[in-house]
Amino acid sequence: MKSRSLLIFLVIVLSLIPVVYFYRWMQRVVRPRESAGRFFLFIFSNFVLVIVYTVLVVGLIVRLFPLHR
């Protein structure tokens, strides 16, 4: 049970690496400090990213580690 928890934690940590690079790329492309419209576009795109990525990571974890009942 403990190794399963550690593997799930490892999957979550490894899944954050692409998000960090995507976030940095979005900052360079959108340049949110230039105007309020760009800032709100940046906030909205990050909101969508969080929702989509959460669904993908949870789906991946559920498929990799199914519950045995």
Strand elements, count: 0
Give the overall form. elongated
Major sheet summary line: none
- Fraction of residues in H or I helices: over 70%
Classify the secondary structure makeup into a structural class.
mainly alpha
N to C succession of SSEs = HH
N-to-C CA distance: 15 Å
Mean pLDDT: 94
List the total number of helices.
2
Low-confidence blocks of residues: none
Radius of gyration: 16 Å
Q: How many domains, in number, for the residues? A: 1
Strand content: under 5%
Question: What's a concise summary of this model?
Answer:
The chain is mostly helical and 69 residues long.
Q: What is this structure's SSE topology?
A:
Blueprint: H1 2-30, H2 36-64
Description:
By secondary structure, the chain is an all-alpha fold. It has one domain. The chain is 84% helix and 0% strand. It contains two helices and no strands. It has helices at residues 2-30, 36-64. The model has no long low-confidence stretch (mean pLDDT 94).
What are the salient characteristics of this protein?
about 70 residues; about 85% helix; single chain
